[in-house]
Amino acid sequence: MNEEPTLSAGWLPQERAEAENASRSSLVPVLEPGLWVNPWDVVLCTSGTLISCENAVVVLIIAHSPGLRAPMFLLIGSLALADLLAGVGLTAHFVFAYLLRSEATKLVTVGLIVASFSASVGSLLAITVDRYLSLYYALTYNSERTVTFTYVMLMLLWGAAICIGLLPVMGWNCLRDESTCSVIRPLTKNNAAVLSVSFLLMFALMLQLYIQICKIVMRHAHQIALQHHFLATSHYVTTRKGVSTLAIILGTFAACWMPFTLYSLIADYTYPSIYTYATLLPATYNSIINPVIYAFRNQEIQKALWLVCCGCIPSNLSQRARSPSDV
């Protein structure tokens, strides 16, 4: 009897993936005899490619521009680098899952993805802390102590992310016992639970910091408006815009990551794989949106981008280049 080999999704336990490939043929179209490709994996690979290209632009701009060495730009560069590696990990996982199938490659690529997304979320928290400190200590913020503190934050978050990414390779995986697998193979249920709880704690801290930032911004705007009554309307509009920007940042982050975080906390490997893909895909969108929110809206980065691309700066951009950045 001839057996036709199937290529299963690399996120799922092996036996379960084969059973699902047979029972859910509507989700896995056949490209040629014996070859199965999950369309969800194709979408994730496409997202990874877009993430890589978009964030590579940000990394190159910051690395190429000596003027972008302030703490804020170092943190934005860290975020872009983390998202870039996450995109590379998603693309590499697809390639290895369908072209070079081995347990070692799964451990490496999933470890890279976990480490990259952990560094991405950590960088978002670091940016939030930096924005809070820049407002709370406005007079003494631009000092050598701030630069040192920024480097310490970067070393800690990347060190923690690398350690988390190495855990599957060092034996913290479910390859020996498929029943302990989480919704993301080869992470165990305990691994996923710890990561989910850590994310929720970081989100709670970011929420608290953004609330404090809103209070500081509104208090400063109110004080200025009392001193200059004729500017009250202008400051009201500026403050409302700043608070709206913070709400968009936090809302986007929660909308992208919260579904997968909550799902991985309550689900295990027995749940239908479509739920895993449906919650994981929005999480990757956060890495697509991050450059737009944190990098491309920044006027200094816009200026550097124009210099790199065509060696010119639009007049309206050059006039605003030294204006304060968005909250």
TrEMBL record:
Record-linked InterPro entries: GPCR_Rhodpsn (IPR000276), GPCR_Rhodpsn_7TM (IPR017452), GPR12 (IPR000599), GPR_3/6/12_orphan (IPR000723)
Subcellular location: Cell membrane
Keyword Membrane: yes
Main location: membrane
Protein name: G-protein coupled receptors family 1 profile domain-containing protein
Organism: Callipepla squamata
Lipid bilayer topology: Multi-pass membrane protein
Keyword Lipoprotein among UniProt keywords: yes
GO cellular component, one term: plasma membrane
Gene3D superfamilies: Rhodopsin 7-helix transmembrane proteins
